[in-house]
Amino acid sequence: MKGISALISVILLLMIVTVLAGLAYVWFTNIFQLLSSSAEQSATGASQTLATQFRIEVAKNITGLPAGTYKVKTTIRNTGTQNIDMTKIAGFIDDEIKTVELGPSVTTLVPGNITTFNVTSTTTYSCTSILKLTGAGGVSDSVSITC
């Protein structure tokens, strides 16, 4: 009986080691897939951000408006290689969010093209104020407002 007990214990140990090796394989495979997927998403997001760029060409104060109305006429150029979703553009004057007034047909800005729109404020700003526009993916540009 002593020989059979030793044989059974060896078989049990081999089964336990095999199960543990299988679990480790599955666990490492899942970790590798998650890391690969995360790296791929990061690379895709970074390349899209690099391909989506714009530059503010003009940021000019509009004068002659009713009291309490302040607008900056803004022209931007798509300097990237992908279309820009203009509905995702946010405007800031001196780090305070403002309203972006797009024209009725302005929803997408094609690479190389320019578009003009207004950034409206309910508070006054000066000629030394900074206009900052931010798009999808964190792409942004800023300039001083000209009077």
Would you write up a description of this structure?
The mean pLDDT is 87. The strands form 2 sheets. The chain has a 7-stranded antiparallel sheet, with no helix packed on it. Strands 3-6 form a two-stranded antiparallel sheet. The chain folds into 2 domains: 1-50; 52-144, Immunoglobulins (Immunoglobulin-like, Sandwich), CATH 2.60.40.10. The protein has 1 helix and 9 strands. The chain is of the alpha+beta class.
Let me know the number of strands. Answer: 9
CATH topology of the largest domain: Immunoglobulin-like
N-C termini distance: 101 Å
Question: How much of the sequence is in beta strands?
Answer: 25-35%
- Helix percent band: 25-40%
Rg (C-alpha, Å): 30 Å
CATH level-four homologous superfamily name of the largest domain:
Immunoglobulins
Average pLDDT works out at: 87
Report the sheet with the most strands, covering strand number, pairing sense and barrel closure.
7 strands, antiparallel
Low-confidence residue ranges: none
What is the H-and-E element order? HEEEEEEEEE
CATH architecture verdict of the largest domain: Sandwich
How many H/I helices?
1
In which order are the strands of the major sheet placed? 1-2-7-5-4-8-9
Number of domains: 2
Q: So what's the overall shape?
A: rod-shaped
Structural class: alpha+beta
CATH class of the largest domain: Mainly Beta
